[in-house]
Amino acid sequence: MRHVSIFCAAVLLLGVQQALAAQQETIVPEAEARREVMVKDVQSHDGIVSGMVVNSSAVPIRDVKLLIDEAWFWKNERHPGISNPSRAEFYTLSGEIPPGGSRTFTYPRQPLPQRTDGRFEVNVKVEQFTELGAGQRM
């Protein structure tokens, strides 16, 4: 009987620890994410988009979801063509970034078409991330 009591107590303690850990993770949406985490040094070359994610928050973060937007600008915006090659994709940078830390990312994707009737502008922004150990946000 004593072994059963010890087992039940251990299972209960494990459940409480898991519940506390779950409460300490908060997914931060786009509007707040951009104030605390930013993307720097974005480059696009030969089918690769790269840059650096900087965590300026006071807590560790992980699973930073980035929006990679490759916008097409026509040479003559008054008379655009019929085929706009703009595209956007999401990329999640897994792993943890400590407070005040940074991490580089490299995202391989299909090369952009080579065209002479306009240009691409690549922009990467933070959509969301998960804060670790922050408890519930207000």
Largest beta sheet, briefly? Answer: 4 strands, antiparallel
Oligomeric state of the chains present here: single chain
Number of domains: 1
* Low-confidence spans: 7-14, 19-23
Percentage of β-strand residues = over 45%
The mean pLDDT is 82
Radius of gyration computed on alpha carbons: 22 Å
Q: Quick one: overall form?
A: elongated
Which fold name is given in CATH as the topology? Immunoglobulin-like
Strands side by side in the biggest sheet:
1-7-4-5
In CATH, what is the class? Answer: Mainly Beta
Description:
By secondary structure, the protein is of the alpha+beta class. The protein has a single domain (26-132), classed as Sandwich (Immunoglobulin-like), CATH 2.60.40. It is built from 2 helices and 7 strands, in the order H-E-H-E-E-E-E-E-E. It has helices spanning 2-23, 30-36, and strands spanning 25-28, 37-45, 48-55, 61-74, 87-97, 102-108, 118-132. The strands form 2 sheets. Strands 1-7-4-5 form a 4-stranded antiparallel β-sheet. Strands 2-3-6 form a 3-stranded antiparallel β-sheet. It is elongated.
Summarize the structure.
The protein has two helices and seven strands, in the order αβαββββββ.
Task: Give the SSE layout.
Blueprint: H1 2-23, E1 25-28, H2 30-36, E2 37-45, E3 48-55, E4 61-74, E5 87-97, E6 102-108, E7 118-132
Keywords for this entry:
single chain, 138 residues, alpha+beta, Immunoglobulin-like
